[in-house]
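User: Here's a protein and a ligand (zinc ion). What would the complex look like?
Assistant: Let me lay out the input and then the predicted complex.
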Amino acid sequence: MSNLKLCQGTKCHTYYTKDRLKGTKGNKTNQTRRRSDFYYGKSNFCSMNCQTDWFNDFGDRAINHFGRLEQPKHLTEQNAWVKDYDWSGGYDNREDRYFFVNKITEERRPLTFEQYNDSNYTLNER
Ligand SMILES: [Zn+2]
């Protein structure tokens, strides 16, 4: 029963909807939404509203905790690699289907399917 997650929205329980009204007859309360999955905020929020409520309450503290950007970042040859995919026809195991492309130099480098799907695999300097 409890593989269900709770929406992390700080005001979720204050929005009146039928599906939030839970409990036995005469004892019903409006409750935070609980579901197996959510579509917003990496599956933490039931709605954009709830995501925004959370950010309004905690966003500044979260940014300060993880490091507020104090200088603009620059896109350079060293960090301009993005993964791309050739959508034209052919077989999925074609060797040149997945590749890195450098958005500054336009250089291409081939990728294996595993590298393409590995979100930690990058050519970018961090
Ligand atoms: Zn919610």
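Summary: Residues 48-66 form the longest helix (19 residues).
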